[in-house]
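Write out the 3D structure for:
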Amino acid sequence: DVASMIDQAGRTSDTTVHDASAQRTGSSAKYPLWFPLYLLYHKASSPQDILTSVELIYQQLTFVDTPISDGLIVLTVARLAELKLTATLRGLVWRFCASSPVPSERHFNLLLRALSLHPRSKETSTLASKVLTTMSKHQRRVSDDTYNVLLHRHFATLAVAAAVEKKMAQDKVQPTAVHLISLLRLMVAHRF
């Protein structure tokens, strides 16, 4: 069970996570950086186990530098999206979008791809739109492959399509045939 693994890891681990800020403040994480992700991906089976794993990840985020925390958030969002745990995604995505310094273009694209693992929903559409808006604010570009994923019938909604269309216009990206076919399918599905 996850609780006993956490307890055991806390007692026996002599490996702690240090970064520049942790060394300055004299603090360190109680568990190795990989441990909460391991729990989330391989051991957490009940909703309580999943929430416990996510809480540990939030704790780890305070001890690591921004590029590492961005990666932790992306991996956590990917798993939560696979499990269709929408409410838990919100806080992580908002934290990512408010990161300072601003996450890299690659991390933004990976976050959008992670979100797209969740079947289409109003909440994930709102989150994807928030990420696209933040990318525009910080002049980060969306890759062609990420556009394809966002417009895939498994994930795309009218809100996502509108946000993608706006982002393409801002970045002066010409829609490809795949993009146009995806948009057409979406419109047909909504009987435009």
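The mean pLDDT is 84.
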